[in-house]
Amino acid sequence: MENLNEYLILAARKGELDVVKEIIEMGADINHHDQKGYTPLIIACYNNRYETAEWLIESGALIDAADYGGNTALMGVSFKGYKDIAGLLIKNGAGLDLQHGNGGTALMFAAMFGRNEILELLLASGADPQKTDIRGQTALTFAQMQGNEEGLRILTAVS
């Protein structure tokens, strides 16, 4: 079974949806965590595999599963800048204000990496701009540190 689970992670990374479906039908765990804690959904999202992510969600993948650092699929796409997948995750109930091991949120990642379309999407969906990490920093703090002027404008408008 363990090999099936590892093959599932690989197929999700490549977006090989037919293979993902077949491996799940053979008994692989749709919520398997690999050695870093990544699930097939986290891997599909992080690698911009929309159709695979959508199928995994529809098939019961845990949308807020986190890797061993506490990072969720929504955090990953907020860092990477995949707005369509962020929308898919949000539409399916992803936790907007979940925090990883250091207290970072998807909103903080979007602000830090200048993913301003995702920043707007998260805010419009109800993400909390006042949430702080373990150092007391907010998304606004991260936008300031990175010189993200557009992010500062967006976050200042909601504060």
From TrEMBL:
Superkingdom assignment: Bacteria
Record has Repeat as a keyword: yes
Lineage: Bacteria, Pseudomonadati, Bacteroidota, Sphingobacteriia, Sphingobacteriales
Presence of the UniProt keyword Repeat in the record: yes
InterPro entries: Ankyrin_rpt, Ankyrin_rpt-contain_sf
Leader sequence residues: none
SUPFAM superfamilies on file: Ankyrin repeat
Keywords: ANK repeat, Repeat
Pfam families, per database record: Ank_2, Ank_4
SMART domains reported in the protein's UniProt record: ANK (SM00248)
Protein name per Swiss-Prot or TrEMBL: Uncharacterized protein
Spans of repeat ANK: 3-35, 36-68, 102-134
